[in-house]
Amino acid sequence: MSDKILKKGKVAMGQKIAFGIGMFANQMFPAILGIFMVVLVQDLGFPGWMWSLIYFFPRIFDSITDPIMGFISDNTKSKWGRRRQYVLIGGIIMGIAYIFMWQLFKENSLQFNFWYFFLWSIVFYLGLTFFSVPYVAMGYEMSDDFHERTSIMAIAQWIGQWAWVIAPWFWVIMYDPEWFPSAEIAVRELSIWVAIPCAICAIVPAIFIKSESTLDKNYEPLNTSNIGQSLIKIKDSFKEAFKIKVFRKLCGATFLIYNAFNTVAALTFFVIVYKLFNGDAGKSGIWVSLFGCLGALGTTFLVIPIITKMSKIWGKKKAFLVAQGISIIGYVMLWFLFVPGKPWMYIIALPFFSFGIGSLFTIMMSMTADIIDIDELNTGKRREGIFGAIYWWMVKVGFAIAGALSGVIIGIVGFNPDLPTIDQQSAVDGLHTFFCFFPIVGTLIAMYIMKDYDIDEKRASEIRLELEKRKQKHN
Fold it and tell me: I need a surface site. Which of 114, 157, 276, 369 has the fewest CB within 10 A?
């Protein structure tokens, strides 16, 4: 099926599901990576500076390569189209690298394990760039219909959310001696069971989402002699993208909500264990895993269907503002429902809390597709890859910053994981306060930024009509 056929009507459900299966891989790899990385410190003895380097450098590397990959993807001339071959190659690289990066042994020296993991993680993130940038661009270009774009992203996010339902249970499996004698052994074996299915899911869009040949397109040349000029054009693309006011709003709001959430998400373990169980991780049982799992289930079965319906009835902006308002209610409820000895009470807040992150990417990725139409109207170019890369660049750089802020918060409140709660009650209360109210601040600022976002269904239709008139004129 060609791009032209895909763009004229509603997208077939099979195509939406094929795209969504790729989203499962896109979310499962980082979800499990974050859990496995605890083993580096807990079981393999990596000191803080090693943790910081392997946490930040690959992500910064990823944020640099993303826009380059976006430019390459947007300008690829191939009988397979612009995206599919990169999605296929990236999925395979990710799968192989993920397995090899976790083949770590205690008997090797600390320096060997560090450099081994560090170098393989660079390969993994290179594969992630090859996969994710063209993959996300695929979704942007599947339809030109205002509401169909939301439907595509909703189905993809619904499938992708299952990664966050499944991932928290790896905490239980890794540290249960009935499963594995040690977590170090667990990650070596589990990495295989994670990587192979995820790599298969990653290449599904490359196989089943068809594209027309781009051999006759008038794209920018991609060759070594032109690489300097290409980098300049990448920089120019960034400038042109950020000239679009609504795109700046989109990036800023996402940065604030997603990274305020991630800053405190890293504190979840400490807040649950120390606020509810006096610092006894053994007594906390499955409550840490349940927090993430139930939140993801709420997103899957409650938030995504509701936000999709809200978007069709009220429009994307109002749906976004209402969803974020509901999430603020959830954060306030968590302030009152983290009660020592009664962990089950926090479950009441999770359906409200889940509306924040649960609705974010469904709405924002649909809005980004609308903004790409504005860029085409301004420049005459279709640059899904560049816009996807810029958007996710904001997310990834912010994610690295969020990791650093988590450590800053721990330092500010004076929290010590070696002490029980009764010996540091004020520090634990401080963590709880940041956990509940730091995301509220980010969300409120994001809502203020988005209050005058002005691309509604009428405006989007006008833009599409102008583009169609221009194409007919050239034809």
Answer: 114
Q: For 83-107, how does the pLDDT look when each residue is reduced to its tens digit (9 = 90+)?
A: 889 999 999 999 999 999 999 888 8
User: Which residue, among 40, 291, 303, 11, has the nearest Cα to 165 in the 3D structure?
Assistant: 291
Identify which of 12, 294, 22, 333 has the alpha carbon closest to the alpha carbon of residue 166.
294
- In this predicted structure, the answer to whether residue 183 has a pLDDT above a threshold of 70 is yes
For residue range 140-156, list pLDDT tens digits in order.
888 777 778 788 888 88
Q: Tens of pLDDT along 199-243? A: 999 999 999 887 777 777 776 666 666 556 666 776 777 788 888
Compute the distance between CA of residue 148 and CA of residue 31 in angstroms, rounded to an integer: 28
CA torsion, points 260, 42, 52, 89, in degrees to nearest 10? -80
Q: Which residues contact 218 (CB under 8 A, 6 or more apart)?
A: none
Q: Which amino acid is at 33?
A: L
Measure the CA–CA gap between 13 and 158, rounded to whole angstroms.
14
The number of residues making up the chain comes to: 475
Distances (CA, A) of 152 to 14, 46, 196, 369: 11, 42, 25, 11
Q: In this structure, what DSSP letter does residue 272 have? A: I
Q: Can you give the pTM of this predicted structure? A: 0.76
Query: Any idea what the Cα angle at residue 197 is, between residues 196 and 203, rounded to 5°?
Result: 90
Tokens of 265: 């998400």
Question: CA triplet 10, 16, 19: central angle to 5 degrees?
Answer: 140
Q: What residues contact 468, with CB distance under 8 A and at least 6 apart?
A: none
Return the pLDDT at 443: 96
Residues in contact with 15: Cβ distance below 8 Å, sequence separation at least 6, in sequence order: 1, 6, 142, 208, 209
What pLDDT, on a 0 to 100 scale, did the predictor assign at position 432? Answer: 94
CA 452 vs CA 278, 317, 357, 448: distances in Å: 46, 9, 21, 8
Higher pLDDT, 107 or 343: 343
| 378: number of Cβ within 10 Å | 11
Rounded Cα distance between 146 and 136, Å, is: 17
Predicted local confidence at residue 1, as pLDDT = 35
Query: What's 61-116 look like in SS3?
Result: HHHHHHHHHHHHHHCCCCCCCCCHHHHHHHHHHHHHHHHHHCCCCCCCCHHHHHHH
Task: Return the higher-pLDDT residue of 385 and 102.
Answer: 102
Alpha-helix residue ranges (DSSP H) falling in 383-456: 384-413, 425-450
* DSSP classification of residue 221: P
Mean pLDDT within 288-297? 82
User: Once rounded to an integer, what is the mean pLDDT over residues 182-196?
Assistant: 86
